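Onboarding guide, step 5: your first structure request.
Type a short instruction followed by the sequence, for example:

Predict the 3D structure of this protein.
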Amino acid sequence: MTTEYVNDTGKWLLSFGIHRGTLTSRDSEQTRHGSEAEARRQYQESKKAYADLGMQVWYAKMIQPGAPYSTGWIVLDSGTPYS
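The system replies with structure tokens like these:
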């Protein structure tokens, strides 16, 4: 029997990656939020703040509490590939 790993944090998780166009300029973060709306708002704010610094979105996704990590991610942005 296989164990399904789920988001057991009790929070919405926002996973967000950025870059400046190269493999070595990548960075990522994961934040916790009390609601879906809060996670989406944080994504929009982060996307704008990083764009103001010349960064591009690499990826952005979120997962609700209790959702399986293997299939539960909601893609917010598939991003711009880097070189």
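Each response can be followed by summary notes, for example: The chain is about 20% helix and 35% strand.
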